[in-house]
Amino acid sequence: MISIDRLEHIQPYAPKREKKYILLWCTSGDLLLRVDDKKLRLSKSELLTITSGQYFGILEQNKAMGFMLDFTLDFFCKTDHDIELVFQNGLFCHFDENELIAIPSPEQISGILEMIFKEFFVQPYQYLISIHSYVSLLLVEINRARIVNGYEIWKPDALFLRFLELVRNDFGEFVSLKELAQKLGTTTVRLNELSKSYTGKTALTVIFGLQISEAKRLMYYENLLMKEVAQRIGFEDQYYFSKFFKKQTGYSPTAYLKTIAS
Q1: What's the sign of the alpha-carbon dihedral 216, 222, 224, 228?
Q2: How far apart are CA 60 and CA 51, in angstroms?
Q3: Cα 105 from Cα 108, distance rounded (Å)
Q4: Whether the predicted pLDDT of 90 surpasses 90
Q5: Which of 102, 130, 148 lies at the terminal end of a domain, its last residue?
Q6: Residue of 227, 199, 197, 198 whose CA lies nearest to 215
Q7: Taking the CB of residue 200, how many other CB atoms lie within 10 A of it?
Q8: Residue 74's CB: how many other CB atoms inside 10 A?
Q9: Which of 66, 75, 84, 189 is most solvent-facing, going by the fewest CB within 10 Å?
Q10: What value does the mean pLDDT take over residues 153-161?
């Protein structure tokens, strides 16, 4: 579903796994945030998005005002157009490279979020339809701001986005690229074409990147044996997982653990 609250009502809390899409908008003050293994400070006229599956928490609340909006994919994405709008320009599809987005016209973003807040709490007739429309407008305004800030337009096909979501939602079971293509009603050739077009990488390389991000989250936040981490991202063999991790990152899982411990 969807919910919204004012930042001034939200107290700091420890990072936790999120199974929804979160948008934070700051109008004054600042927040120190933890997103996966990174710290980010959100300040006035800045916006941040969190993708479902990431770990997120608020470490410091320094008189921050603004809004935190969250929604599930099934609430917003009724059509392929909705899916493309959510992920356009890397808004909620940043492959875990979260960045602060400066908004040159903050009054527009604040105004839309105020309307969503009012609709959500008053709940007039057909308020969910109204909120869906406001969220669409909000995403359009944010995409416009990114273009003003010099970002190139990145508008991936809905099929590619469904592919990413399918991988993210089931790391634990090893599924071949062919099986993923069958689930999506397409071919491996088409998935590779889309992946190369939107990321410059093969579909398999994109999957590897998502697996590495998930493995890092598990090592950072969960007290698991390395064998358990391997199994959670689809590897039965711990040794093979360690080789895979080092090949993809340049360092072993043990070296990564030492890095985050320091």
Answers
A1: negative
A2: 21
A3: 6
A4: no
A5: 148
A6: 227
A7: 9
A8: 8
A9: 189
A10: 87
Confidence of residue 13 (pLDDT cuts 50, 70, 90): very high
Please report whether residue 153 resides in a domain.
Answer: no
Residues of the chain above pLDDT 90, percent:
69
Residue 41 has pLDDT above 90, yes or no: yes
Query: 76: domain CATH number?
Result: 2.60.120.280
Contact 111, 117 (CB under 8 A): no
DSSP 62: E
Which pair of structure tokens corresponds to residue 112? 């839309």
pLDDT the model gives residue 261: 73
Residue 93 and residue 122: Cα distance in Å, rounded? 31
CA distance 120 to 86: 20
How many residues would you count in the chain? 262
Same domain? 91 vs 189 = no
What confidence score (pLDDT) does residue 238 get?
Answer: 92
Co-location of 175 and 238 in the same domain:
yes
- The set of residues, in sequence order, having a beta carbon less than 8 Å from that of 8 and lying 6+ positions away, is 63, 64, 65
Indicate the SS3 state at residue 252: coil
pLDDT at 84 over 90: no
One domain, residues 21 and 106: yes
Range of the structural domain that residue 51 is part of:
2-148
Does residue 26 lie within any of the structural domains?
A: yes
Q: How far apart are CA 24 and CA 92, in angstroms?
A: 12
Same domain membership, residue 183 and residue 106: no
pTM for the whole structure: 0.90
> Does residue 41 fall inside a structural domain?
yes
Identify the pLDDT of residue 94. 67
Instruction: Say if residue 132 is in the same domain as residue 164.
Output: no
Answer with the one of 86, 120, 148 that is the final residue of a domain: 148
The pair of structure tokens assigned to 113 is 């979020």
Overall domain count for the chain: 2
